[in-house]
UniProtKB/TrEMBL annotation:
Protein name: protein-histidine N-methyltransferase
Alphabetic keyword roster: Methyltransferase, S-adenosyl-L-methionine, Transferase
Superkingdom assignment: Eukaryota
Reaction(s) catalysed (UniProt annotation): L-histidyl-[protein] + S-adenosyl-L-methionine = N(tele)-methyl-L-histidyl-[protein] + S-adenosyl-L-homocysteine + H(+)
Pfam families referenced in this protein's UniProt entry, alphabetically: Rubis-subs-bind
InterPro entries (UniProt xref): Rubisco_LSMT_subst-bd (IPR015353), Rubisco_LSMT_subst-bd_sf (IPR036464), SET_dom_sf (IPR046341), SETD3 (IPR025785), SETD3_SETD6_MTase (IPR050600)
Rubisco LSMT substrate-binding domain residues: 65-243
Its EC number(s): 2.1.1.85
Entry's Gene Ontology BP terms: methylation
Family of this protein: Belongs to the class V-like SAM-binding methyltransferase superfamily. SETD3 actin-histidine methyltransferase family.
Signal peptide bounds: none
UniProt source species: Timema shepardi (Walking stick)
Amino acid sequence: MQPLTTTFSPELDRSECTACHSYSAGDQIFIFYGSRSNADLFVHNGFVFGDNHHDSMRLKLGVSKADPLQAERAKLLSRLGLPTTGEFYLKTGADPVDGRLLAFLRVFSMRQEHLEHWLDSERSSDLVYPDCALETEVETKTWNFLHTRIKLLLSAYPTTMLEEYLHLCGGKRENHFEKIILSTADRDSNLDLTTIISSLVDCESIVLDHVATKDDLDQLNKGGMASCRRLAIHMRVSEKKILHGAIDYVEQRLLACGHPSSNN
């Protein structure tokens, strides 16, 4: 049973939370916002979770009507319960590629003989599974396409993870967290993203703990650390975590195919 149920009252123009069972004075009450991505929480609730196990990133993909194999692809996708154009998701965690996304990309990557084979097969539903017995050519093309798409998404961000970190630190270069990360960058161009991400919350806490007066707060806001901007930065970090995790996963799949990424 849910601890609370939330509804909106048009008469009173407000949200109302109703307890689903009895509570005593002083009891702690929890509310569950649902299995939602940080993007959804950001837009509709005004916050994000740094460690949201339900986080995901939306990709919009489609089969062109000009594709000479559009009819065959549409037929196989329909059998899998997938649209020819729709929204798919990369997820956070160890298995970032959603089964629906994987199946769509595999169908998208097939040549005519592959499509004919899977249309005749009784095991077409296996296409949603990472370890489906698939032609190496199709599998390699699938993962290379996704690798390229993720790289393009990452390149669209105007800032790097390190720059996001510096923004959250208020641009204070003397902060010891930054020194740790910058020294890592000096030694190795491949930044330790886990170190950066885990430092973001600590860094923000240090900056906010320093705020003791209105003048301090005004100065902090002038420096670009207003709450809305912090949320936006955390949102970008959340998205980049998903994309970097997906890149690592895709590259492992390509190595398993015996074909390192062509984009490395």
